[in-house]
Amino acid sequence: MIAVLLKTLPFFAITFLGFAAVKWRLFEPAGISGISRFVMFLALPALLFTRLATASAELLLSGRFMLAYMLAVLLTFAGAALLARYVLRAPPPRAVLYGLAGTYGNIGFLGLPLITVLVGDELAVPLAMILTFDLVILVPLSSVALAAGQARTTGAVTGTKTGIGPGLAALMRNPLMLAIAAGALVSLARLPVPEPVLELSGLLSRAAAPCAMFVVGAVLAGGRTAAHPLPALVMSLIKLAVFPLVVWTVLSGFGIGGVWLQAAVLGAAMPVAAVVTILAEQHDVLPAQASMAVLISTLASAATIAVALTLV
């Protein structure tokens, strides 16, 4: 356990450096934005494309894995929402936010670079499949549910661009989704990837982990604290403890093991994604608590990820 924790500490030290760089004003917002765009548009897409394009086509067609994972998400999301609604007496839109925060982790900027470096590149394919589910299904449906719940509670629709059309257009322009689609097509078509392309994408991929962790820390430095932290604490507990346990239980019940189970559990152990804060602000549903949940879960994940690595 201690050895695993020591392996993760350098990565979270980079996150602390990103946090400190913003707090001490060593970087202007434009500088952080530039690093973030490098990660989002070059480093992470290169990592995803390389791993998927060089994976076997059979590996990408694991329907049983995605069915089991989606069931785990549904169970956790519903459980978190019901807990918020009937135990914590939260109104419907807040209940939806509990469900989203409890199931949507930072796979893109934290999970992919961290897990592939610590464990191995073979986990990139299942992680990419989970990321696709999050971006294509979980986030859009949660956004619609938040808007509907808020309209039901207040009588007015909140947020901007809540329609399906703009959401799909943004999804089609997402560089991570484009990289996943391109890599999957190359693999399914069994096309060879030229060696210079692999060399270039390999160089960019190796920059993904340190740059992404630095950006995560920089984003945390701008997070807000809440006067009533209980919702943030509950969201963090569900995300870091309950969700990984549900994922492990459901996937094990489906007979899924090896790198697939390892990737799913480690992905589930990632902290609350910053996108949850953006959606909370768009729909005016506990924005300060959502931001605090991102901060708390990211800080605590240094320990919980080490535990997950030890157990799986």
Tell me what the structure shows.
81% of the residues lie in helices and 0% in strands. It is built from 14 helices and no strands.
Label this structure with key terms.
mainly alpha; Na+/H+ antiporter like fold; 14 helices
Rg from Cα = 19 Å
Number of domains: 1
Q: Would you tell me which CATH topology applies?
A: Na+/H+ antiporter like fold
- Level of helix content? over 70%
The run of helices and strands is HHHHHHHHHHHHHH
How large is the count of helical segments? 14
Oligomer: single chain
**Low-confidence runs:** none
SS elements, strand count: 0
Q: Give the CA-based shape.
A: globular
The CATH architecture comes to Up-down Bundle
β-strand amount: under 5%
Distance between the termini: 12 Å
User: What structural class do the secondary elements suggest?
Assistant: mainly alpha
Largest sheet: none
**CATH class group:** Mainly Alpha
| Average pLDDT score | 88
Summarize the SSE layout with pairings.
Blueprint: H1 2-23, H2 29-53, H3 57-60, H4 63-87, H5 92-103, H6 107-118, H7 124-154, H8 164-173, H9 175-188, H10 195-221, H11 230-253, H12 258-268, H13 274-283, H14 287-311
Helix pairs in contact: 1-10, 1-14, 2-6, 2-9, 2-10, 4-5, 4-7, 4-11, 5-7, 5-11, 6-7, 6-10, 7-8, 7-12, 11-12, 11-14, 13-14
